Amino acid sequence: MTDEYFMQQALREAKLALEEGEVPIGAVVVVQNQIIGRGHNQVERLNDCTAHAEMIALTAAFNNLGSKYLVDATLYVSLEPCVMCAGALYWSKIGRIVYAAADDKNGYRSVTGQQSPFHPKTKVELGPYGEESLNLMRSFFVQRRK
């Protein structure tokens, strides 16, 4: 299994969000090449501003493992995490974060600059399929503005 495969799974979740009228962001949490948590934005559906893809995927992963820490896990997410999700990821002690596209407006870097908000041992990488992720975002906002 590769980063490309797991990012495709995150994009699949983002497409589910788009179909539901949500901002199209998707995430999966992986341990030993197994997806242990999935999520896509459900803010509108749940009427909950914290129902971001990462938060839902993290909760599923915690429940799956029966643990509050994810030191051996990788999060694949279609868009750079916001500062709220970055805080949750910090506390999870997740081992690795791979995101497809930067979010210059609402991503964690827009608030923290170059200082990482993640656990010191967490590795953060820009991953594959950035253009695909941005295309989903563009199509969502084009639909909303009609």
From TrEMBL:
The EC number of this protein is 3.5.4.33
The active-site annotation reads 54 (proton donor)
List the CDD domains hit by this protein, alphabetically: nucleoside_deaminase
Give me the comment on cofactor binding.
Binds 1 zinc ion per subunit.
Q: Which keywords, in A-to-Z order, does the entry hold? A: Hydrolase, Metal-binding, tRNA processing, Zinc
Domain (CMP/dCMP-type deaminase) ranges: 1-111
According to its UniProt entry, the protein's GO biological process terms are: tRNA wobble adenosine to inosine editing
Write down the chemical reaction(s) this protein catalyses: adenosine(34) in tRNA + H2O + H(+) = inosine(34) in tRNA + NH4(+)
Q: How does it assemble?
A: Homodimer.
Q: What is this protein called?
A: tRNA-specific adenosine deaminase
**Which species does the entry assign this protein to?**
Chitinophaga caeni
